[in-house]
Amino acid sequence: LGYKINMPCFIRRYIIWVILTRTVTHEVSFTMAFHPSPFFPLYLQAHEDSQESLSSLPRRDTMGSFLPDSSSYELLNVIGRGLDDLLTVNLARYRPTGEHVAIRRIDLESCTNDMVTYLQGELHVSKLFHHPSILPYKSVFIAENELWVITPFMAYGSARDLICSHFADGMSEQTISYILLGMLKALEYIHHMGYVHRSVKASHVLISADGQVCMSGLRSIFSLIRHGQRARVVHDFPQYSVKVLPWLSPEVLQQNLQGYDSRSDIYSLGITACELANGHVPFKDMPATQMLLEKLNGTVPCLLDTTTIPPEELSMKPSRSGADSGICEGPGAGGVRHSNGGDPSSSSSGGHPYNRTFSHHFHAFVELCLQRDPERRPSASTLAGHPFFKQIKRRPSEALPELLRPVSPITSFSSSQQQDSPSGLASLESGLSHLEVDDWDF
């Protein structure tokens, strides 16, 4: 892209519809490009970034299970907004079945050509992926001047939502083990398909009412497939990555000739493990330049417990004016740095919230993920067999809802109450108030 074309809105809308419709319904992906010819400025060309043909995939199509018709959906509450208010995320009810869904509505007329191409790439990837641990797109269609993306409504919200609203000092180790295993299953599939996720974090981990863990955040995903062959490394830096900097690996941030590969996602998984356990992400209060230096110098984040915090600090009631950064002085070190960027909650007994002990296997798992040298990080499939996950004895559908108590799914109220009772609607609004739009900007 790079050619600015003035054209009537109805022509522009039709062109966008053609481009996105081809992405969603055709068996071969297409990208939009502008041709310098004055006679026909717009043409379609075969997608060079992936030689995967959708015709080789199973005919089970996640984008056909819900009707592509806006009248089939009853818009309820707005979960949030994004993309400079071009994007609105709604909780909605699918009229034919009464099922709750999340709808991402994007104003196409106000989108730049770059944004449209970006959306098209995201839709291509969502069409390609079919895995229970990756959030599916149930339907994608154009409604007037908006692009509607229909996804299941994940009633527990994101893992980050749960931390912010109920687990300010971190989740239990067993809860984290279920979440991390679900993430590893998704990453194993993504890496096998030849992609790097590049946006692994707690706000992109969604949990359904029945305990299913799904990864979202496909906006920054990048293909290793080039001209039909799998590249060993890539050098592309993710667009719009300011919000995800604390999770990015050192090799992604340094942007040198060595590049990076799928193991950069493993580092981000380790950072996410610390985020889930400590209640906040390491490096969150640092300027970007300092964070880069810390990572390049081998500073290793850690789990905050009795093995990483000095006893004299554990005996003190934590100050509510500052928060642990979650960064050890080195691997296995006991020193912890403090900063002014958070508001940790003390435990109910008034003691230190991190006066707890995580298992040796959990610490070892995090250290493996956060190795400075990417060659020393295991693959997602290898990590899925780590001893840390031996504590998982039940299915997530049985264990996670129980482990997340007293939190209840947002949709745990009757449809009739929600429709007819003001108190039901107020309950819904209260339940949605802690959700972040980034969590639903898939």
UniProtKB/TrEMBL annotation:
Localisation: Cytoplasm; Nucleus
Protein name: STE20-related kinase adapter protein alpha
Domain Protein kinase: 73-389
Pfam families hit by this protein: Pkinase
A GO CC term attached to the entry: cytoplasm
Region Disordered, annotated ranges: 309-353, 410-430
Organism: Scophthalmus maximus
Compositional bias of kind Low complexity: 339-351, 412-423
